[in-house]
Task: inverse folding
């Protein structure tokens, strides 16, 4: 069925106002497919009827569900493995040296979808437990999508999801099979992390300071000005010596001056301290 | 170019896997069952083998045991790729010398990541 220009514009505007995200061209083409289950459940037989139902305001949950259906929640464990390796074997040891005094690390996965990124980190910490003895490691995952956060909290994955990116030995170690088709993360890992519904665009960051921020495959759906504003917000809560990890195809270069490439860790970014005194810059590591 | 031998009695699975592997720049060969695969590796040992479990003539498990006991000095990585999805099967595969395990159905991301994990990706 042909989606009228007017319908797709209204839905795009709804998505952008709630999340800051732009409807990508490919999603625009698949609007009908993305919204079909929702329309079917509500007994609405066309997009135009769906839009009328949203506009009438009789069902406040409807707009939210439409937005959720339009978001791209694609994710998997250890996505972009090589950057994860850089984080785990380069940036974290450096931070560990820098935070030896407090023995505290706080990590934020912004736009964490159904939690695979958060659990990847938590599993890696659990596997190097002896190195982090006595440390308080705080891993927070946030997403604008309530259903994604709910799924993340449950830590229950389909067979298809559980093996995407995850080595079989880690799957055997940290997951329990439920029935024949589902796998649940162990309570040890589950309890080491927390999740929260949060919008990068409409809210201020959930804490004042983070040592590591992962914001991956989220910024690419924002218009440039929104992307820049979000990067500035992230920079404001990146602790001295902390770093930012983006998706493999993303960069801050040309988008914002708030971060620069981490010269020691390829693919990661550090706060741009150009305006700070050099002594402070070096003293922070 | 890295090489992969797909061992599966399903033509469709071989086709799907070949398509993914070729986009990942692997040179791909195919075998229909374990016995066929044993003959092929005598001619050319691949870097990695994508191995189905249930096949006529010789199962994936039997092939794997043969391979791991063979005197070949260079052993390929073996990724089981099967509909068997319970812990018992996974454990048995690992004990027999499999390096990774994929439960069908799979997609490009799964295959690509598993190949990276075993060090050929
Ligand atoms: C493609 S997923 C990426 C998930 C994960 N970070 C990864 O790289 O695999 C993008 C996620 O960003 C979330 N998102 C979109 N707009 C957001 C916003 N304004 N604030 C927070 N999360 C947002 C979406 O709901 C979705 O779960």
Result:
């Amino acid at each position: 069925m042909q989606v009228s220009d007017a319908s797709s514009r209204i839905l795009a505007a709804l998505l952008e106002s709630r999340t800051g995200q732009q409807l990508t061209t490919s999603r625009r083409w698949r609007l009908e497919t993305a919204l079909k289950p929702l329309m079917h459940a509500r007994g609405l037989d066309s997009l135009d009827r769906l839009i009328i139902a949203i506009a009438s305001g009789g069902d406040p949950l409807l707009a939210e569900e439409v937005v959720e259906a339009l978001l791209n929640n694609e994710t998997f464990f250890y996505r972009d493995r090589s950057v994860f390796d850089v984080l785990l074997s380069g940036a974290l040891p450096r931070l560990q040296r820098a935070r030896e005094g407090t023995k505290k690390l706080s990590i934020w996965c912004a736009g964490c979808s159904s939690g695979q990124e958060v659990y990847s980190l938590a599993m890696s910490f659990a596997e190097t437990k002896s190195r982090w003895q006595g440390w308080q490691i705080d891993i927070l995952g946030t997403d604008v999508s309530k259903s994604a956060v709910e799924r993340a909290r449950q830590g229950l994955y389909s067979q298809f999801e559980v093996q995407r990116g995850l080595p079989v030995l880690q799957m055997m170690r940290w997951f329990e099979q439920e029935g024949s088709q589902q796998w649940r993360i162990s309570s040890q890992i589950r309890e080491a992390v927390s999740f929260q519904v949060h919008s990068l665009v409409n809210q201020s960051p959930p804490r004042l300071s983070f040592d590591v921020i992962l914001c991956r495959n989220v910024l690419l759906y924002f218009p440039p000005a929104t992307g820049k504003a979000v990067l500035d917000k992230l920079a404001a809560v990146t602790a001295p010596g902390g770093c930012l990890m983006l998706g493999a195809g993303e960069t801050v270069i040309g988008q914002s001056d708030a971060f620069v490439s981490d010269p020691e860790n390829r693919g990661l970014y550090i706060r741009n301290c150009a305006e700070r005194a050099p002594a402070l810059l070096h003293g922070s590591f | 170019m890295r090489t992969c031998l797909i061992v599966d009695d399903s033509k469709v699975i071989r086709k799907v896997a070949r398509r993914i592997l070729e986009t990942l720049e692997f040179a791909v060969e195919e075998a229909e069952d374990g016995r066929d695969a044993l003959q092929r590796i005598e001619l050319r040992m691949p870097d990695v083998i994508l191995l189905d479990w249930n096949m006529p003539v010789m199962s994936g498990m039997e092939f794997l045991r043969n391979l791991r006991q063979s005197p070949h000095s260079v052993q390929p990585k073996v990724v089981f790729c099967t509909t068997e999805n319970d812990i018992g099967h996974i454990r048995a595969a690992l004990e027999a010398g499999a390096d990774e395990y994929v439960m069908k159905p799979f997609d490009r991301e799964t295959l690509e990541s598993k190949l990276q994990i075993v060090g050929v990706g």
In short: Residues 2-117 of chain B form a domain with the Rossmann fold fold (CATH 3.40.50.2300). DSSP finds five helices and five strands in chain B. Residues A 19-21, 71-75, 79, 111-113, 117, 143-145, 148, 199-201, 216-218, 247 surround S-adenosylmethionine (CB under 6 Å). The helical segments of chain B are 11-23, 34-43, 60-69, 87-95, 108-117.
